[in-house]
Amino acid sequence: MKHLDFGYSQSKWVAEHLVTQTMGKGLNARVFRPALISPSVAGEGFNFDISVRLLSFMVNNGISTNAKNQVSFTPADLAANNIVAISNNEASAGNVFHVTRDTYETMANVTDILGNLTGQTFSIFPLSDFVPEVVQRCRKEDLLAPLLNFLVRSADKIGAMEFKLYDNRNYRAFRDASSWGKKDPPLEDVVGGIYRFMTSRSIINK
User: Fold this and answer.
1) What string of H, E and C letters represents the secondary structure of 44-73?
2) How far apart are CA 20 and CA 25, in angstroms?
3) What pLDDT tens digit does each residue of the chain (206 aa) get?
4) Global pTM?
5) Whole-angstrom Cα distance, residue 72 to residue 85?
C-alpha cells in the first residue's frame, strides 16, 4: 500500500484485500486484474479512460514514445466473455487472474498500426522526453487535459516498470480450458477497433 500514491490503485488494493479476507471465511470468489480495456474490435463501447485520451492525443499531435513498457489492450466484450467463462469453472475459485494479452507488445507496435491506419508519421520520443512534450502541447480543451497531472505524477513509476511483464498463466490456463473462452484477436484488429471508436466519436483529426 505504501507504494500506491493515488486513489485509483489504492481503492483496488483495498478491494482485493477485502475479497481475500472474505475468501478466507468461505466466500467463493476470484480476483480479476484487467490491464487496459479497449473498445470492441468493431469500435463499439463508451471508453474515455486515459488510454483512449492519450492515444487520441498522440494521433492528433503525431507523437509517440519508444518506451519498452508492455502495452496490453483487451477489447471490453472479450474481457467480459472470458471473465464469465473462467468464473463458471468452480476450480478457478480463490485464484488471481491477470486479464491481459498473451503476447508482449509496446507503444511502438501500437504506433506502427496507427500510422498505417492514419497514413501519418509519428515523432518518437523516449519516455523522459515524451511526457514533457505532452505537457507542452496539451491545451485545456484536449480530452487529455483533465488527466495530465495524473500522467505527470505517474511518469517515474511508468519508467521504473519499463521491463516488467504481465504473468497471465492462470488466465490463459482457465480461459483455454473453457469451451466459451476466446483467445486474443491480432493486435491490428484491437488497435483498429480503438481507431474506429476514436473516429466515430470525432475525437481525432481526420
Assistant:
1) CCCCCCHHHHHHHHHHHHCEEECCCCCCCE
2) 9
3) 777 767 888 899 999 999 999 999 999 999 999 999 999 999 999 888 999 999 999 999 999 999 999 999 999 999 999 999 999 999 999 999 999 999 999 999 999 999 999 999 999 999 999 999 999 999 999 999 999 998 898 888 888 888 889 999 999 999 999 999 999 999 999 999 999 999 999 999 86
4) 0.93
5) 20
Rg (the chain; Cα; Å) = 18
Domains along the chain with CATH numbers: 30-200 (3.40.50.720)
Whole-angstrom CA distances from 194 to 22, 55, 107, 126, 172 are 37, 9, 14, 23, 23
Distances (CA, A) of 200 to 28, 48, 136, 182, 187: 41, 13, 27, 26, 20
Question: What gap in Å lies between CA 13 and CA 4, rounded to an integer?
Answer: 9
Q: For residue 178, give the C-alpha cell.
A: 473453457
